[in-house]
Design goal:
- It comes from Vreelandella olivaria.
- This is Pseudouridine synthase.
- Belongs to the pseudouridine synthase RsuA family.
- The protein has 235 residues and is an alpha+beta fold.
- It has 6 helices and 17 strands.
- Strands 7, 10, 11, 12, 13, 14, 15, 16 and 17 form a 9-stranded mixed β-sheet that branches. Strands 3-2-5-6 form a 4-stranded antiparallel β-sheet, with no helix packed on it. Strands 1-4 form a two-stranded antiparallel sheet.
- α1 packs across α2.
- The longest helix is centred in the middle third of the chain and has 13 residues.
């Protein structure tokens, strides 16, 4: 059961005050009958609510995969850059929250959802969900230097300003200037800071997967799709 004015605000762009105004103006029917009482309790599963000829229904939980481009931020508030949720063409997209964050200049797999428990399972350090990043490096790394870096990452790196080293991670070089780093944490700017601690600089960064879920190769930067039931069940 739910108050009618709240139901209207949950299923349309209307605020509670605008929902009450629509009711007073006779724009809403309940089970075919005009209704103006905002406090009316409705059965959201069985009652039929129509606003200006359009039947309304509650939005269920959504799970989104976005190929995040550069110059897109994960903040809820509007800032200098376009927000990730602005790319999602769904009702009530502003309710979607990024599952973890990517820096504004980092591209790749970004998950968004309005399911807080699911999001926690993905991001909680206790679950040690692996995240894979591809880094383009300013300085090429080869031979003994590459072996040394791989060993340092496997042991854990003490980052500037931190009191504990990073959790053991996996580093492999795809080329002298391109590295794949797999981490299970989410510290502030962690990947960039790890390479900085190794004496290098990340020119560009791309997240390719989270856990067993890889970025859909069919999604161009800025494109998105809903996760399948099987993909949701991975976490």
């Amino acid at each position: 059961m739910m108050r009618l004015d709240r139901f209207l605000s949950e299923t349309t762009p209307l605020t509670r005050s605008l929902a009450k105004r629509a009711l007073k103006n006779g724009e809403v029917t309940l089970n075919g009958e005009p209704i103006k009482q905002s406090a009316t309790q409705i059965d959201t599963d069985n009652d039929v609510v129509v606003l200006n000829g359009e039947r309304l229904a509650l939005v269920g939980l959504r799970y989104i995969m976005l190929h995040k481009p550069v110059d897109v931020e994960c903040n809820a508030r509007r800032g200098l850059y376009q927000r990730a949720i602005d790319l999602i063409d769904l009702p009530k997209a502003d309710r979607l929250q990024p599952v973890g964050r990517l820096d504004v200049d980092t591209t790749g797999l970004l998950l968004l959802t309005d399911d807080g428990q699911w999001s926690h399972r993905v991001t909680s350090p206790r679950h040690r969900c692996a995240k894979v990043y591809i880094a383009e490096l300013a300085e090429p790394v080869e031979g003994a230097a590459a072996e040394w870096a791989i060993g340092q990452v496997a042991e854990g790196i003490m980052l500037d300003g931190e009191e504990t080293p990073t959790q053991p991670a996996t580093l492999r070089f795809l080329s002298p200037s391109q590295a794949e780093l797999t981490i299970t944490e989410g510290r502030y700017h962690q990947v960039k800071r790890m390479f900085a601690a190794l004496g290098n600089h990340v020119n560009s960064l791309h997240r390719s997967s989270i856990g067993y879920l890889a970025l859909d190769a069919n999604l161009a930067p800025g494109e998105w799709r809903e996760l399948t039931a099987d993909e949701i069940a991975l976490f």
